[in-house]
UniProtKB/TrEMBL annotation:
Membrane association type: Peripheral membrane protein
Species per Swiss-Prot/TrEMBL record: Monodelphis domestica
Keyword Heme among record annotations: no
Predominant location: mitochondrion
Disulfide feature: 22-57, 32-46
InterPro entries: COX6B-like (IPR048280), CX6/COA6-like_sf (IPR036549), Cyt_c_oxidase_su6B (IPR003213)
Location of the protein in the cell: Mitochondrion inner membrane
Record GO cellular component, one term: respiratory chain complex IV
Classification of source organism: Eukaryota, Metazoa, Chordata, Craniata, Vertebrata
Pfam families (UniProt xref): COX6B
Pathway recorded for this protein: Energy metabolism; oxidative phosphorylation
Protein's name according to its UniProt entry: Cytochrome c oxidase subunit
Length: 78
C-alpha cells in the first residue's frame, strides 16, 4: 500500500466519474483524524484516505476545501 499510485477499485463508486469518490475520501480522512485525535491515538491509519483523495482530487479542490475547513464554511459534515 505504501507505493500505490492509483487507488484500488471502490465498489461504492463503479462509474468512470470519480468526483464523489474524491469528495468522500476527503471527508473520510478528516473524520478519521478527528476521531483518532479525540481518542488520543495515532492518526496514521487515516493516511490511506489522504493518499486516495490526493490521487483523485484536483489540487485546487483540496486547497479550497482545506481553506473552507479553516474558515468554518466547509459544507460537508466532518
Amino acid at each position: 500500500m505504501s507505493n500505490f499510485s492509483t487507488p484500488p477499485f471502490d465498489p461504492r463508486f463503479p462509474n468512470q466519474n470519480q468526483t464523489r469518490n474524491c469528495y468522500q475520501n476527503f471527508l473520510d480522512f478528516h473524520r478519521c483524524t478527528k476521531i483518532m485525535k479525540r481518542r488520543g491515538k495515532d492518526s496514521s491509519p487515516c493516511d490511506y484516505y489522504r493518499k486516495v483523495y490526493h490521487s483523485l482530487c484536483p489540487l485546487s479542490w483540496v486547497q479550497r476545501w482545506t481553506d473552507q475547513i479553516r474558515e468554518g464554511t466547509f459544507p460537508g459534515k466532518i
